[in-house]
Amino acid sequence: MNTTLLCKFALEFNHPLLDRFLTIGHAQSTKLSYEELICQLFDIKPSPDYPLASIDYQENQASYYLYADPVYLSLQRDTFFLEKRFTDDFTQNEIKDLCDSLNKIFQSDIQKFTLNHEGRLFLELTIRPKIKTTSFAHIKPQSIDLFMPQGEEAMSWHAFMNEIQMFLFDHPINHERSKRGALSANSIWFSGGGSLPKGILNRYAAIFSNAAFLKKLISIDAQISLQPLDILDQASFNQDTLIALENDEDIDRILGLIWNNFKKRKIKTLDIYVSYQDHLLHIDNQFMQILKLWKKTNTVKKYFNVH
Protein backbone atom coordinates (compact mmCIF):
# COMPACT_ATOMS: atom_id res chain seq x y z
CA MET A 1 0.00 0.00 0.00
CA ASN A 2 1.04 3.61 -0.51
CA THR A 3 1.24 6.20 2.25
CA THR A 4 1.75 9.95 1.97
CA LEU A 5 2.77 11.97 5.04
CA LEU A 6 2.61 15.77 5.07
CA CYS A 7 4.39 17.56 7.92
CA LYS A 8 4.08 21.30 8.49
CA PHE A 9 5.95 22.47 11.56
CA ALA A 10 6.32 26.06 12.68
CA LEU A 11 9.55 25.95 14.65
CA GLU A 12 11.89 22.99 14.48
CA PHE A 13 12.36 19.36 13.53
CA ASN A 14 13.82 16.94 16.01
CA HIS A 15 12.80 13.34 15.53
CA PRO A 16 15.15 10.39 14.90
CA LEU A 17 12.67 8.50 12.69
CA LEU A 18 12.14 11.51 10.44
CA ASP A 19 15.92 11.77 10.13
CA ARG A 20 16.09 8.02 9.41
CA PHE A 21 13.67 8.36 6.51
CA LEU A 22 15.68 11.31 5.19
CA THR A 23 18.90 9.31 5.41
CA ILE A 24 17.73 6.16 3.61
CA GLY A 25 15.31 7.84 1.21
CA HIS A 26 15.79 10.02 -1.83
CA ALA A 27 15.33 13.69 -0.84
CA GLN A 28 14.85 16.73 -3.00
CA SER A 29 13.37 20.20 -2.75
CA THR A 30 10.13 20.79 -4.59
CA LYS A 31 8.99 23.91 -6.40
CA LEU A 32 5.57 23.79 -4.76
CA SER A 33 4.37 25.35 -1.54
CA TYR A 34 2.69 23.16 1.08
CA GLU A 35 -0.78 24.33 0.01
CA GLU A 36 0.04 23.95 -3.70
CA LEU A 37 1.12 20.36 -3.02
CA ILE A 38 -2.21 19.61 -1.35
CA CYS A 39 -3.97 20.96 -4.43
CA GLN A 40 -1.80 18.80 -6.69
CA LEU A 41 -2.51 15.67 -4.62
CA PHE A 42 -6.22 16.19 -5.31
CA ASP A 43 -5.75 17.01 -8.99
CA ILE A 44 -6.45 20.75 -8.70
CA LYS A 45 -4.39 22.44 -11.40
CA PRO A 46 -3.19 26.07 -11.59
CA SER A 47 -5.22 28.31 -13.90
CA PRO A 48 -2.89 30.21 -13.94
CA ASP A 49 -2.61 30.28 -10.10
CA TYR A 50 -3.49 27.49 -7.74
CA PRO A 51 -6.84 28.75 -6.31
CA LEU A 52 -5.52 28.84 -2.73
CA ALA A 53 -7.39 31.97 -1.67
CA SER A 54 -10.83 30.71 -2.75
CA ILE A 55 -10.27 27.36 -0.98
CA ASP A 56 -9.17 29.23 2.15
CA TYR A 57 -12.07 31.70 2.03
CA GLN A 58 -14.79 29.20 1.02
CA GLU A 59 -17.84 31.39 1.65
CA ASN A 60 -18.76 32.34 -1.91
CA GLN A 61 -18.48 29.97 -4.88
CA ALA A 62 -19.23 32.63 -7.49
CA SER A 63 -16.46 35.17 -6.83
CA TYR A 64 -12.74 35.16 -7.60
CA TYR A 65 -10.48 35.57 -4.57
CA LEU A 66 -6.90 36.65 -4.04
CA TYR A 67 -4.91 36.66 -0.82
CA ALA A 68 -4.25 40.30 0.10
CA ASP A 69 -1.44 40.00 2.64
CA PRO A 70 0.05 43.10 4.30
CA VAL A 71 3.83 43.06 3.74
CA TYR A 72 6.93 45.12 4.39
CA LEU A 73 8.99 46.11 1.35
CA SER A 74 12.55 47.18 2.09
CA LEU A 75 14.43 49.61 -0.15
CA GLN A 76 17.58 48.05 -1.64
CA ARG A 77 19.47 50.66 -3.65
CA ASP A 78 17.18 51.29 -6.61
CA THR A 79 14.58 48.56 -6.00
CA PHE A 80 12.47 46.92 -3.30
CA PHE A 81 12.68 43.47 -1.73
CA LEU A 82 9.73 41.73 -0.08
CA GLU A 83 11.21 41.52 3.40
CA LYS A 84 8.35 40.24 5.58
CA ARG A 85 4.67 39.36 5.43
CA PHE A 86 2.28 40.07 8.29
CA THR A 87 -0.35 37.38 7.74
CA ASP A 88 -0.50 36.61 11.49
CA ASP A 89 1.03 39.82 12.83
CA PHE A 90 -2.10 41.95 13.22
CA THR A 91 -4.68 41.94 16.01
CA GLN A 92 -8.26 41.28 14.94
CA ASN A 93 -9.11 44.95 15.46
CA GLU A 94 -6.10 46.09 13.42
CA ILE A 95 -6.80 43.87 10.42
CA LYS A 96 -10.51 44.82 10.49
CA ASP A 97 -9.61 48.53 10.59
CA LEU A 98 -7.19 47.99 7.69
CA CYS A 99 -9.84 46.13 5.68
CA ASP A 100 -12.42 48.86 6.30
CA SER A 101 -10.03 51.69 5.43
CA LEU A 102 -8.91 49.98 2.21
CA ASN A 103 -12.54 49.56 1.18
CA LYS A 104 -13.28 53.24 1.77
CA ILE A 105 -10.75 54.09 -0.95
CA PHE A 106 -10.63 51.08 -3.25
CA GLN A 107 -14.00 49.30 -3.09
CA SER A 108 -15.96 49.29 -6.35
CA ASP A 109 -18.71 47.36 -8.12
CA ILE A 110 -16.20 44.67 -9.07
CA GLN A 111 -13.88 44.48 -6.04
CA LYS A 112 -13.77 44.72 -2.27
CA PHE A 113 -11.46 43.68 0.55
CA THR A 114 -12.85 41.09 2.98
CA LEU A 115 -11.78 38.88 5.90
CA ASN A 116 -12.33 35.18 6.49
CA HIS A 117 -13.19 33.69 9.89
CA GLU A 118 -9.50 33.43 10.81
CA GLY A 119 -8.97 37.15 10.13
CA ARG A 120 -6.91 36.83 6.94
CA LEU A 121 -7.32 39.57 4.35
CA PHE A 122 -8.61 38.78 0.84
CA LEU A 123 -9.58 40.69 -2.27
CA GLU A 124 -12.93 39.56 -3.69
CA LEU A 125 -13.56 40.16 -7.40
CA THR A 126 -16.71 39.64 -9.44
CA ILE A 127 -14.71 39.59 -12.70
CA ARG A 128 -11.79 37.20 -13.27
CA PRO A 129 -8.57 39.22 -13.63
CA LYS A 130 -6.17 38.48 -16.48
CA ILE A 131 -3.06 38.09 -14.33
CA LYS A 132 -0.77 35.47 -12.85
CA THR A 133 0.53 36.08 -9.33
CA THR A 134 3.48 34.80 -7.29
CA SER A 135 3.00 33.21 -3.87
CA PHE A 136 5.46 33.73 -1.04
CA ALA A 137 7.01 30.29 -1.45
CA HIS A 138 8.42 31.39 -4.83
CA ILE A 139 9.68 34.86 -3.90
CA LYS A 140 13.45 35.18 -3.53
CA PRO A 141 15.49 38.05 -2.04
CA GLN A 142 15.49 39.88 -5.35
CA SER A 143 13.70 42.87 -6.84
CA ILE A 144 9.94 42.55 -6.44
CA ASP A 145 9.66 43.58 -10.09
CA LEU A 146 10.44 39.94 -10.90
CA PHE A 147 7.46 38.69 -8.88
CA MET A 148 4.78 41.29 -9.51
CA PRO A 149 1.54 40.25 -11.29
CA GLN A 150 2.09 39.17 -14.89
CA GLY A 151 -0.29 38.92 -17.82
CA GLU A 152 -2.57 41.05 -19.95
CA GLU A 153 -3.69 43.27 -17.07
CA ALA A 154 -0.32 43.39 -15.29
CA MET A 155 0.26 47.12 -15.70
CA SER A 156 -3.10 48.09 -14.22
CA TRP A 157 -2.43 45.82 -11.22
CA HIS A 158 1.03 47.33 -10.73
CA ALA A 159 -0.61 50.77 -10.68
CA PHE A 160 -3.23 49.50 -8.20
CA MET A 161 -0.51 48.18 -5.89
CA ASN A 162 1.38 51.49 -6.12
CA GLU A 163 -1.78 53.35 -5.10
CA ILE A 164 -2.13 51.07 -2.08
CA GLN A 165 1.50 51.72 -1.12
CA MET A 166 0.91 55.47 -1.19
CA PHE A 167 -2.25 55.01 0.86
CA LEU A 168 -0.43 52.95 3.49
CA PHE A 169 2.58 55.30 3.70
CA ASP A 170 0.92 57.59 6.25
CA HIS A 171 -1.78 55.25 7.58
CA PRO A 172 -2.57 55.46 11.35
CA ILE A 173 -2.06 51.70 11.71
CA ASN A 174 1.56 52.11 10.65
CA HIS A 175 2.04 55.03 13.04
CA GLU A 176 0.93 52.75 15.86
CA ARG A 177 3.19 49.96 14.65
CA SER A 178 6.15 52.34 14.54
CA LYS A 179 5.47 53.45 18.12
CA ARG A 180 5.85 49.87 19.35
CA GLY A 181 8.90 49.20 17.19
CA ALA A 182 7.15 47.02 14.61
CA LEU A 183 7.81 47.17 10.88
CA SER A 184 5.32 49.09 8.77
CA ALA A 185 2.89 47.29 6.52
CA ASN A 186 3.79 49.41 3.52
CA SER A 187 2.21 47.29 0.77
CA ILE A 188 -0.37 44.60 0.02
CA TRP A 189 0.76 41.45 -1.81
CA PHE A 190 -1.77 39.60 -3.96
CA SER A 191 -1.44 35.87 -4.61
CA GLY A 192 -3.26 32.54 -4.88
CA GLY A 193 -6.01 33.76 -7.18
CA GLY A 194 -8.92 31.67 -8.36
CA SER A 195 -12.50 30.54 -7.93
CA LEU A 196 -13.58 27.64 -5.76
CA PRO A 197 -13.05 24.34 -7.64
CA LYS A 198 -16.23 22.50 -8.55
CA GLY A 199 -14.73 19.11 -7.76
CA ILE A 200 -11.61 17.25 -6.65
CA LEU A 201 -10.10 13.83 -7.35
CA ASN A 202 -9.37 11.71 -4.29
CA ARG A 203 -6.85 8.87 -4.73
CA TYR A 204 -6.80 7.86 -1.05
CA ALA A 205 -8.92 5.28 0.72
CA ALA A 206 -8.32 6.98 4.08
CA ILE A 207 -7.29 10.50 5.11
CA PHE A 208 -6.16 11.38 8.63
CA SER A 209 -5.37 14.98 9.45
CA ASN A 210 -5.50 18.04 11.69
CA ALA A 211 -4.54 20.30 8.74
CA ALA A 212 -6.84 23.32 8.37
CA PHE A 213 -6.24 23.94 4.65
CA LEU A 214 -6.70 20.25 3.77
CA LYS A 215 -9.95 20.17 5.75
CA LYS A 216 -11.25 23.14 3.75
CA LEU A 217 -10.26 21.56 0.44
CA ILE A 218 -11.87 18.21 1.26
CA SER A 219 -15.12 19.94 2.24
CA ILE A 220 -15.61 20.71 -1.48
CA ASP A 221 -16.60 17.06 -1.93
CA ALA A 222 -19.17 15.83 0.57
CA GLN A 223 -18.30 12.20 -0.31
CA ILE A 224 -14.78 12.49 1.16
CA SER A 225 -14.37 12.09 4.91
CA LEU A 226 -11.49 13.39 7.03
CA GLN A 227 -10.63 11.28 10.08
CA PRO A 228 -8.95 12.48 13.29
CA LEU A 229 -5.34 11.55 13.90
CA ASP A 230 -6.09 9.89 17.24
CA ILE A 231 -7.83 6.94 15.54
CA LEU A 232 -4.89 6.22 13.22
CA ASP A 233 -3.63 2.71 14.02
CA GLN A 234 -1.93 -0.33 12.46
CA ALA A 235 -5.04 -1.30 10.49
CA SER A 236 -5.08 2.08 8.75
CA PHE A 237 -2.13 1.04 6.59
CA ASN A 238 -4.06 -1.75 4.85
CA GLN A 239 -5.12 0.85 2.27
CA ASP A 240 -3.70 3.85 0.47
CA THR A 241 -3.46 6.49 3.17
CA LEU A 242 -2.84 10.22 3.44
CA ILE A 243 -1.69 11.67 6.77
CA ALA A 244 -1.25 15.41 7.28
CA LEU A 245 0.17 17.08 10.41
CA GLU A 246 0.28 20.80 11.10
CA ASN A 247 1.87 20.54 14.54
CA ASP A 248 4.19 18.08 16.23
CA GLU A 249 1.86 16.85 18.99
CA ASP A 250 1.20 13.49 17.28
CA ILE A 251 4.53 13.04 15.50
CA ASP A 252 6.05 10.47 17.89
CA ARG A 253 3.16 8.02 17.69
CA ILE A 254 2.49 8.50 13.98
CA LEU A 255 6.11 8.16 12.86
CA GLY A 256 6.40 5.06 15.05
CA LEU A 257 3.37 3.53 13.34
CA ILE A 258 4.69 4.41 9.90
CA TRP A 259 8.17 3.03 10.63
CA ASN A 260 6.82 -0.29 11.97
CA ASN A 261 4.54 -0.77 8.97
CA PHE A 262 7.31 0.23 6.58
CA LYS A 263 9.65 -2.39 8.07
CA LYS A 264 6.90 -5.02 7.80
CA ARG A 265 6.40 -4.12 4.10
CA LYS A 266 2.78 -3.16 4.71
CA ILE A 267 3.81 0.22 3.30
CA LYS A 268 5.40 -0.35 -0.10
CA THR A 269 5.79 3.29 -1.12
CA LEU A 270 6.14 6.14 1.36
CA ASP A 271 6.20 9.79 0.34
CA ILE A 272 7.03 12.28 3.08
CA TYR A 273 6.73 16.02 2.53
CA VAL A 274 8.18 18.35 5.16
CA SER A 275 7.30 22.05 4.99
CA TYR A 276 9.23 24.79 6.78
CA GLN A 277 9.04 28.55 6.14
CA ASP A 278 7.67 28.17 2.60
CA HIS A 279 10.27 25.51 1.67
CA LEU A 280 9.10 21.97 0.91
CA LEU A 281 11.25 18.83 1.11
CA HIS A 282 10.13 15.59 -0.54
CA ILE A 283 11.54 12.32 0.87
CA ASP A 284 10.74 9.31 -1.32
CA ASN A 285 11.12 5.94 0.43
CA GLN A 286 10.90 2.47 -1.07
CA PHE A 287 11.30 -0.67 1.06
CA MET A 288 14.67 -1.67 -0.45
CA GLN A 289 16.14 1.62 0.77
CA ILE A 290 15.83 0.41 4.36
CA LEU A 291 18.95 -1.68 3.72
CA LYS A 292 21.10 1.43 3.15
CA LEU A 293 22.50 1.35 6.67
CA TRP A 294 25.89 2.46 5.34
CA LYS A 295 24.62 5.90 4.38
CA LYS A 296 25.84 8.87 6.41
CA THR A 297 23.16 10.13 8.76
CA ASN A 298 21.35 13.22 7.56
CA THR A 299 18.94 15.33 9.60
CA VAL A 300 15.95 17.45 8.66
CA LYS A 301 17.19 20.25 10.94
CA LYS A 302 20.50 20.30 9.08
CA TYR A 303 18.73 20.25 5.72
CA PHE A 304 16.66 23.33 6.59
CA ASN A 305 19.52 24.92 8.58
CA VAL A 306 17.30 25.15 11.67
CA HIS A 307 19.13 26.00 14.90
Task: Describe the 3D structure.
- It is built from nine helices and eleven strands.
- With 307 residues, it is an alpha/beta fold.
- It folds into two domains: 2-44 and 199-304; 52-194, no CATH class.
- The strands form two sheets. It has a six-stranded mixed beta sheet with strand order 2-11-10-1-9-8, covered by helices on one side. Strands 3, 4, 5, 6 and 7 form a five-stranded antiparallel beta sheet that branches.
- A hairpin with a 2-residue loop joins strand 10 and strand 11.
SSE pattern: EHEHHEEHEEHHEEHEHEEH
Mean pLDDT: 89
Shape: globular
Helical region count? 9
Tell me the domain tally.
Answer: 2
Read across the widest sheet, the strand sequence of neighbours is 2-11-10-1-9-8
Question: Topology, please?
Answer:
Elements (H helix, E strand, L loop, with lengths): L1 E7 L7 H9 L1 E4 L4 H8 L10 H6 L6 E13 L2 E7 L6 H15 L4 E5 L5 E5 L28 H16 L2 H8 L7 E8 L11 E4 L2 H7 L22 E5 L5 H13 L5 E8 L2 E8 L13 H5 L3
Parallel strand pairs: 1-9, 1-10, 8-9
Antiparallel strand pairs: 2-11, 3-4, 3-6, 3-7, 5-6, 10-11
